[in-house]
Amino acid sequence: MFEQLALIGCGLMGGSFALALRRAGLVKRIVGYSKSPSTTERARQLGVIDVEAPSALLAVSGADIVLLAVPVAATESTLKAIRHLVRRDMLVMDVGSTKRDVVEAARRALREHVGTFVPCHPITGKEKAGVEHADPDLYRDRQVIITPIERTLVSQLQRAEQVWAAVGSRVLKMSPDAHDAAYATVSHLPHVLAFAMMNSVLGQAQADQFLSLAGPGFRDFTRIAASDPAVWRDIVVANRSEVLNQSRQFREALARFEALIESADAPAVEALIRQASEARARWRMGNVQED
Amino acid sequence: MFEQLALIGCGLMGGSFALALRRAGLVKRIVGYSKSPSTTERARQLGVIDVEAPSALLAVSGADIVLLAVPVAATESTLKAIRHLVRRDMLVMDVGSTKRDVVEAARRALREHVGTFVPCHPITGKEKAGVEHADPDLYRDRQVIITPIERTLVSQLQRAEQVWAAVGSRVLKMSPDAHDAAYATVSHLPHVLAFAMMNSVLGQAQADQFLSLAGPGFRDFTRIAASDPAVWRDIVVANRSEVLNQSRQFREALARFEALIESADAPAVEALIRQASEARARWRMGNVQED
């Protein structure tokens, strides 16, 4: 049981964590801070937080658990803003979608206290940003990747695992490098492709007509294109070497496909589609039967 | 009210049409034919069709409405197989995702009877092929694009519109060329990108690990990659000039994105994402509020 959660960033991810932690009966008091005061106020009006703090530092005052839920490029400045109140027995976590840059930011900002910081990436989300879409079930039955470093305190790592389990998540541990390579492949690049798909359509004179004709395939394929611009700007820039590496491999796969289409080589086109189709039909999210 | 539906191709699309037409009380008898006798038998066992026909021609014998639900490249041979029984008062429709090639196939195969053929493309589907996934609601609240040619009989066009309305669809009419350009953009290319994304991941040594870590964004983005290989082989080959044109425009949009990521130009990256995100957040399928 925690006395006080300091929620830094009262958006979808942070707000959902606050609701889930409270529902699990794990926290007495939630003090929130967002860069925009109107966001913090809305979070309080919605009952997501109990108290609005005027700064990240004041949110952390009296807290024994801290969640950073800000765009990843804001990690370092946020940790620097709270470092004077970070104690060895305080659990500090983030929810950023990149981990190498977050870990480096934590090393620089927290120095001797870096061991209290547990880098986390919950594999969940919605394409509707904002605290008004916060959902206590957002983390339920989802994977959370934890990427400890050699200096991470075992005691804090264990507490982090317990907290995520309490909100219904399954914890996996891996290195920051392995994390960033994997998520460039299965998350960051797909987002870039969905953004580029929308940009490509929007750049055409008949964009409005084309979009009015699109159906359920387009709806699902482009759902992630509606993601939060500030969040995804930081992710693709922070993880750019892996994202560009994956984009190069994707372009090679696309070029092979195009060449076969151009030569109208139906059996070879079918073979490529069949490889993709059978693998996707077999795939289950988190190896769990769902869709 | 129709006496007999000849269903040629007893898969997901055809089976769903049969179920919907029967539920609407519009047909007395459904005779089905599929290239694979085991498919036709399963359709009868599931109650999707009443009678199994040993050939397309025999399915059409006694029919006053015919639905072709076969991969688009099979359109011409199928129409040739039934042409001796096609009459002026028989409504013949297809459900193919390309229309220019289908219309040309119909001209060649049906000649003087081409006016009885109404080319249709329902904007619906599932990524689970086969008659066992047939669903009488598949066409409900979906758009159906009809692409008549100058020789299409007005009487047949009107009957086709009535049939689609009776199963809950909204009909839109356009030219085959306009259709193929639009659907290359919002359907065929997204499928190719989703296939290529899967191919790209599968070509990497860590494919299994990466796929086990993928979350809901990947799930939605790649859902269409599980589509039927024979159906999609025909679509991308039939519409290859438009698909390749759209792929080129997409690659240009992706290259612009990559260049900004590479230079870590965060504001410009955010601007591109924001354009995509705002457009996608505003978009509603068929201009109807849904997701």
UniProtKB/TrEMBL annotation, chains A, B:
<dbReference type="InterPro" id="IPR050812">
    <property type="entry name" value="Preph/Arog_dehydrog"/>
</dbReference>
<dbReference type="InterPro" id="IPR046825">
    <property type="entry name" value="PDH_C"/>
</dbReference>
<feature type="domain" description="Prephenate/arogenate dehydrogenase">
    <location>
        <begin position="3"/>
        <end position="291"/>
    </location>
</feature>
<dbReference type="Pfam" id="PF02153">
    <property type="entry name" value="PDH_N"/>
</dbReference>
<dbReference type="InterPro" id="IPR008927">
    <property type="entry name" value="6-PGluconate_DH-like_C_sf"/>
</dbReference>
<dbReference type="InterPro" id="IPR036291">
    <property type="entry name" value="NAD(P)-bd_dom_sf"/>
</dbReference>
<dbReference type="GO" id="GO:0004665">
    <property type="term" value="F:prephenate dehydrogenase (NADP+) activity"/>
</dbReference>
<dbReference type="Pfam" id="PF20463">
    <property type="entry name" value="PDH_C"/>
</dbReference>
<dbReference type="InterPro" id="IPR003099">
    <property type="entry name" value="Prephen_DH"/>
</dbReference>
<keyword id="KW-0560">Oxidoreductase</keyword>
<protein>
    <submittedName>
        <fullName>Prephenate dehydrogenase/arogenate dehydrogenase family protein</fullName>
    </submittedName>
</protein>
<dbReference type="GO" id="GO:0008977">
    <property type="term" value="F:prephenate dehydrogenase (NAD+) activity"/>
</dbReference>
<dbReference type="InterPro" id="IPR046826">
    <property type="entry name" value="PDH_N"/>
</dbReference>
<dbReference type="GO" id="GO:0070403">
    <property type="term" value="F:NAD+ binding"/>
</dbReference>
<dbReference type="GO" id="GO:0006571">
    <property type="term" value="P:tyrosine biosynthetic process"/>
</dbReference>
